[in-house]
Amino acid sequence: MSGEGDPGELAPRADGEERFADDRPRPTPLWALLSRWLVRWEGWLRSHGGRPLRMAIGGFWLAVTAVAAFLLVGPVINPPLGLEEITDSAKNATDTWIARDFDVDYTLTRDDEGRMQAEVVETITAFFPDDVDESGIRRVLSTQYQGHDLAPRDVTASIDGVAVEPRLRERGDRLTFVLDTGERLSGDHEFVLRYRIQDLAYTSTDDITGDGVDLLEWSVFGPDWPQGFAALDVSVTVPDELDALLVRQPSGGVAWTLVSGMDWLEPEESSPPGQKTYAFTVDQNVPPHATAWFRMLFPEGTFTMPPPTGLFLLQTFGPLLPLAILLLTLPFAIAARAVAWSDARGRPWYVAQDDPPKGVSVAQAVQIVQRPRNRELALAVAAVRGTRRSARRAALIAAGRAARRSGRVGDGFRARAGYLLDRTRSRQIADGFRRIPSGFVRDWFIAAPLALTVVQFAIIRQLSHQETLAVIWWPGVFVLVSLAVSAIVLWIAVSARPLTRKGALARQYLAGIDVYARRTSMLTRTTIDDALLPYAVIVADPREAGRRVSALVERELGGDAELRAWRTSDFLSWPRLLVRSAALLIVAGAVVLVAVLPNPYLRLTTYERWDFEDPGTLYTQVASVDVDARLSADGDRPRLDVVQTTVVDFDDESHRVPQFATPVRTAIEGQSLGLEVDEVRVDGEAVPFHLSLRDDAGTITTAMTQVRSGRAEVEVRYAYTSPAVAGEASRASGREGESVDRIRWAALVDGWESGWTYPSEPDPVTVTLRVDDEVAQRAFSAGWLREDPETAEDARDWKDSSYAFGTLEAELEPPPSSGEEAGTITESDESLSDARVHSLRVTHGEYGYPTDSLYADLGVLLEFPAGTWAGPNPAARDAEQLAWALPTIIVLSTAAMAVALGLTAVVAWRVRGTRRMAPGLVRDVFWWLTPATALGAVIIGVWATVDIPADWPEVALQLPACGLALVAAITVAVAVRPVAAPRRPDDRAWMRARDPQRDA
Fold first, then answer.
1. What pLDDT, in 10s, does the model give residues 578-611?
2. What is the model's pLDDT at position 103?
3. What letter would DSSP give residue 854?
4. Is 691:699 a contact under the CB 8 Å cutoff?
5. What is the Cα–Cα distance from 260 to 685, expressed in whole angstroms?
6. Rounded CA separation 813/116 (Å)
7. d(CA 805, CA 803)
8. What stretch of H or E contains 623?
9. Over 80: is that where the pLDDT of 471 sits?
10. pLDDT at 470
11. Half-sphere exposure of residue 913, counting CA atoms within 13 Å on the CB side?
12. CA–CA dist 936, 898 (Å, integer)
C-alpha cells in the first residue's frame, strides 16, 4: 500500500499512529453522469410504486418475449405471394371482375420549388361476369414511395360517365379507393379515376455509369393488383424542358412471374405542343398479380427531393431498434457497475494493523480483496498453525510446495478455479461482506437483454421473407452483436456483488496489515506460526510471498528436499503451456488462412471468363472478329499494341442498355502483362468503358448510356506494356524444360467460339500479328499458340506449345472430303522491310472451327533465351507455384503429424500395457496436438478441395490425408485415457479451504 513518503499518508496523530487516506479512483465523468441518471430513475420508479410496479414491468417484458418468440417460430406475417400462389390465381381470374382495358395517363411537371408533380387519369373498362356478385372496383395506391410522401389529392371519379364520390381508406403506406355503385354489376362498365401525386422520383445510381441520377421507376398497378387484364395502355407526358434532360430513352414493360417484356420508348408523333408523350401498350390477356412499370432517368439534382417521412425512417431503422436499445443499455450497465453498484465506502482513512482481523477468516479475506493467486498459499500457511504436532511436518511441506507454486503462470488456472469454487465465495452475502443489488434498474438489465435479443431475432426472421428497406442489413452480424451485448449486460447485472460497509471496513483493515507488513518487513522476519502471516500473504505480491514463505519452511524443515515435488498434476509447466498454445495456434492459423487467402485452385474457368457480370452484355451478338496487333521493342522492353474490331448486333428489346464486352488476359503465372486500354469506339464514335479484373483475366465492357439497335462496328484498342514473362520452353522449341522468356499473346481468349451471347458464331475470325525484325531475330521459337496433349495425361496439365508460322494450314486444314462443313483456315506470311506479318483467318462450319483442336487461346507464342527482356518475374512465378502447392503441403504435413501421434499412442499403449496416462507433457501432446493437427488438416483440406473437380490429384492427396488425420485423432482418444492423480494430502490442503479460526 503506502510506504514512507507516500502522498497517501496523512499527518501522524498525537499518539504517533499514522493515518492513510483511502483514496479510491474517481469514475469518469461519463460513468458518473449515467449513474446519476440511473439513481434518479430508480428513485422515481420507487416513489411511484413498489413491488406491484416491478411485477407489472416484469410482466411487460415477459409478454414482449412471448410475442417475439411467436414471431420467431410461428408463421410469417403477411408473406409475399409465392410463384405457386400467383400461378394458382390465374385459374381463378374469372371469380372477380376483369380489366378488359386499363388506360392510364401520367402528366409530369416540375413546380416552382423544383419538385415533381404528376396528374394521373386511370380509365378502367371492367367486365363483371354474370356469376360475380360485385358492385364496384377497388384500387390500391401507395402513399409513400422511397421515403417520399406522395400526398394523393384532388381525387375524383366517375362510373359510366356519372360522377361519384370514391370512398377512401388509408392504412399504413397504402390508400384504397372504393368506387361502388351500390348494386350488383354485370357486363362492361367504365371507371375513371383522377388524382394528383408528387415526388415520384428519388435519388439513385445509374447502373451503367455509376453516376448519381434522379430516377423515376413507377409501378402502374400499385402495390396490389389481383385482377387479370386483356389490354393495357400507358402514356407518360413530360414538358420539353424535362425531356431534354433525360439521361437515356425511357422504358416501360410488363411482367408476370418469370415472363416479362420491355420496350424502349420513343416520343409519340401526336405529342402536344411543348410536350413529349411516351407510350406503350400490351394487347394480350395477362393473369392476376402482374406488374407494369415505366422508367425515366434524369441527372441528379433535376428535382428537389423532400425529406424522408417518419414512416420511412421507422421502416428503415426500426428493424435495428432492439439492437440500438441493447447498445444503449451497455454503457448504462457499465456505469452502474462502476458507480451505482460500486463497493461501499469505509472510513476516509485506515491505519497500520498488527493483529489479525476479528470475525474475518483467511478464506473470507481472500474473497474480500479478490486475490485468487494468493489463496492457496494463505490457506496452507494458516493450516500449519492450526495443525497438530503429529501432522505439522506434512502441513509444512504442503505450505512450502504451495509457496513454490504461488504466482507462477502455470498455476493461474488452478488458482482461479479453486477461488471460484470455494464455498466461502457463496457465503459472502450471508456473512454480510457483500450484497446483491436489487431494484428496477437491475430488473431492466436482466429482462431487457433477454427480451430484446428475442425481438431482434424475430424481426430478422420476419424480414427475411420481405423486401428489406434498412440501409445496412447484415443479419448474421446483428445476431452476433445482439448475443454479445446481451451476454455482457446480463453478466454485469447478475455478477455484481459490491462490498457492504462491513466488507469495506474489512478491506481497509487488510490494507492496514499490508502497510504493517511492508513497514516491518514482516515476511522476512516473522515465523511460520505468526497468526498475522496468512493475512499478510493475502495482500502481498504472490510471487514474492511465495519466496518468503518457502524460505521460512525450508528453515524449519532443515532443507528443501521435500519441497522439490511442488508441481501438481494440474500445474501447467512452460512446455505444457507451449504445447497447448501451439495446438490453439494451429487451429486458429487454419481458420485465418482460409478466411484471408484466396483459394489457389479456384482459377477462372473458360465459362467464367465469358460470364460477363455487367448488365446489358447478354443482348449483343458477334458476327465477325478481326484482331490486328504489332509486337515491337523499345530497347530491352517489348510492347504489344492491339486493335480488336468486332461486328456486333445490338438487341434493343431488353430492359438494359445493350453493351459489348470482350475478355483479355492480364497476367500469366502471377506475372502482370501491363495491360492498358486506350479507347473503345462504336461506329467510329468514342464511348465510355470500364475494365473489370478477375484473377488473371480482365473484361473490357462498354458503358454506353444511349440505346443502340442493329449492327455496329466496335473497335477496342489496348496494349501490353510488359508482355514477356518467365516460363519453361515448350516441346516444340527443342529446349523443353529450360527457363526462357516467353511472349504468349491471346488474341481471343479460349472459349471465343461460343463465349459471346448465343447463337454468336463469329465468321470470319482474323488474327494478324506484325513482329518487328528487332524482336523476331531474338526469338528461337515462334508460332501459333496451342496446348500440347503429349506433355501430360491430364488435360489440366497440358503445357503451352506452338505450330510454327506457315505450318498451321497443314496441321489443321480439314480433309477435302469434309467440304465446307468443317470450316476453313487460311494462313499467310508477308515480309516487310522491317518486320514480318503473320495472319490467320478461320471460318465456321457445321462442325465448328478448324482451330478447335488447338485447345487454347487463339494467339501466338514466341520464346526467347532467359534474360532477353526486362519485365519477366521468376519470383512471381515461383510464388504462384508455391501458392498452388501450399494447401497440399500444409494438409499433408499436419495430417502426417496427427498420424504419427496416433501411431505413437498405440505403441505406447501396447508397450505400457495400459491406456491410462497421468497428466503431464506427454499426455498434453497426445490430447492437444493430435486433434489440433487433424482439425487444421480438415479445415484447409475441405476449403481447398470443396469446389474443384474430384479427379484432380490434389483431391486424391488431401482428402485421404484428412481422413487419416481424423482416424488418428479418434485413435488417440481411445488409446490415451485419463487416470486419477494420486491424492497427496500435503498437496491438497488448499482444497479443503480450512480456516483455523473457524475450526477453533
1. 999 999 999 999 999 999 988 888 776 777 788 8
2. 94
3. G
4. yes
5. 33
6. 66
7. 6
8. strand 620-634
9. no
10. 52
11. 0
12. 10
DSSP string, 752-814: HHHHSSTT---SSEEEEEEEEHHHHTT-SEEEEEEEEGGG-SSGGGPEEEEEETT-HHHHHPP
d(CA 842, CA 859): 13
CB-based contact 783:715 (threshold 8 Å):
no
Closest CA to 243 of 209, 268, 207, 208: 268
Least Cα distance to 6 among 29, 23, 27, 25 occurs for: 23
pLDDT reported for residue 385 = 84
Q: State the cell numbers at 887.
A: 494447401
DSSP label at residue 963: H
Which cell is 272 given? 402536344
- Looking at the predicted structure, is the pLDDT value of residue 813 above 80? no
Neighbouring-strand partners of residue 202: 215
Cell of 542: 504472490
Give the count of beta carbons closer than 10 Å to the beta carbon of residue 609: 24
**Residues facing residue 736 across a β-bridge:** none
The total number of residues shown for the chain amounts to 1000
C-alpha cell at 457: 431475432
CA distance 97 to 183: 14
Pair 728, 781: CB distance under 8 Å: no
d(C-alpha 165, C-alpha 371), whole Å: 82
- For 968, half-sphere exposure in the C-beta direction (CA atoms, 13 angstrom radius) is 31
Q: Which of 239, 240, 200, 202 is nearest to 220 (CA)?
A: 200
CA distance 825 to 818: 13
DSSP-derived 3-state class of residue 641: strand
Q: Count of alpha carbons within 13 Å of 548, Cβ hemisphere only?
A: 24
Map residue 715 onto helix, strand or coil: strand
Mean pLDDT (the chain, rounded): 86
pLDDT tens sequence across 332-389: 999 998 888 888 888 888 899 989 999 899 999 999 999 999 999 999 999 988 788 8
Strands (E), 651-748: 661-665, 667-668, 671-672, 675-682, 685-686, 689-694, 697-702, 710-720, 724-728, 739-748
In sign, the C-alpha dihedral spanning 414, 435, 363, 521 is positive
DSSP string, 893-943: HHHHHHHHHHHHHHHHHHHHS-SEE-SSHHHHIIIIIHHHHHHHHHHHHHH
Q: Which three three-digit cell numbers place residue 281?
A: 401498350
C-beta of residue 429 within 8 angstroms of C-beta of residue 436: yes
Burial of 290 per CB tally in 10 Å (0-12, 13-18, 19+): buried
Three-class SS of residue 629? strand
- The H or E element containing residue 98 is strand 98-110
Q: Are 860 and 748 in contact (CB under 8 A)?
A: no
For residues 205 and 212, the answer to whether their CB atoms sit within 8 Å is yes
Query: What pLDDT was estimated at residue 990?
Result: 40
CA-closest candidate to residue 361, choices 430, 431, 435, 434 = 431
For 655-704, the pLDDT digits (tens) are: 788 999 999 999 999 999 999 999 999 999 999 999 999 888 999 999 99
Asked if 308 contacts 146 with a C-beta cutoff of 8 angstroms, the reply is: no
Alpha-helical runs (H) found in 387-439: 392-405, 412-421, 423-426, 428-431
Backbone φ/ψ region at 848: left (φ over 0), alpha (ψ -120 to 50), beta: left
- Return d(Cα 285, Cα 343) in angstroms, integer: 78
User: How many Å apart are CA 838 and CA 828, to the nearest integer?
Assistant: 6
- Cell numbers at 713, concatenated: 462496328
Residue 831 sits at the vertex; the CA angle it makes with 825 and 835, to the nearest 5 degrees, is 110
Distance of CA 447 to the CA centre of its chain: 30
